[in-house]
Specification:
129 residues; alpha/beta; Rossmann fold; six-stranded mixed β-sheet; 35% strand
């Protein structure tokens, strides 16, 4: 994940998790610092480096989708890692419309997007077809 950690961005990610009433394990891909910040008494946060070996997460937080040529494969893998109805949160820099398009094309529904300084926090639910 690109170094996007700011206190404001982390607060927006936490707010997205709270709005979605996420309970259960949350995976944070390639960002140990964000994982430490999000950990708390009401949810288990797991830092994942690289490939996801497990599934069944209530939510997944990842970044790097804005500039990735393989964005479709990435978002597909991230969606497979969450339970049906689970939340996928994308933290990235880029154009808001492009990040929303990639989230929707990747299969996320109920997409929300908020700016946290120059970072965008885009979240959506994944439902299998």
């Amino acid at each position: 994940m690109v170094s996007l950690f700011t206190r404001h961005a982390a607060d927006e990610v936490r707010a997205a998790l709270d709005r979605a009433a996420v309970r259960g394990r949350v995976a944070v891909v390639d960002n140990q610092r964000l994982a430490r910040h999000l950990g708390g008494e009401d949810r288990e946060v797991v830092a994942v480096d690289g490939e996801l070996a497990e599934s069944g997460y209530a939510a997944l937080i990842a970044g790097g989708l804005a500039r990735a040529d393989d964005w479709e494969q990435r978002i597909t893998a991230w969606c497979r890692a969450v339970v049906p109805g689970g939340l996928v949160v994308l933290v990235d820099r880029g154009q808001a419309t492009e990040l929303s398009r990639r989230a929707l094309c990747g299969g996320l529904t109920a997409v929300e997007q908020r700016a946290a300084g120059r970072v965008l926090v885009t979240s959506g639910r994944w439902q299998p077809y």
